[in-house]
Amino acid sequence: MKKTVLVAFSALLLFSSCAKEFNQVYKSTDYHYKYEYAKECFAKGKYTRAVTILQELIVQAKGTSEAEESLYMLAMAEYLDHDYATASETFKRYVKSYPRGAYAELAEYYIGESLYMDTPEPRLDQSETVQAISAFQEYLDIYPDAKMKEKAQQRLFSLQDKLVEKELYSAQLYYDLGSYFGNCTSGGNNYEACIVTSQNALKDYPYTNRREDFSVLIMKSKYELAQQSVESRKLERFQDAEDECYGFINEYPDSKERKHAEEYIEKCKKITSAAKDEQ
Question: CB count, 10 Å around CB of 80?
Answer without folding.
Answer: 14
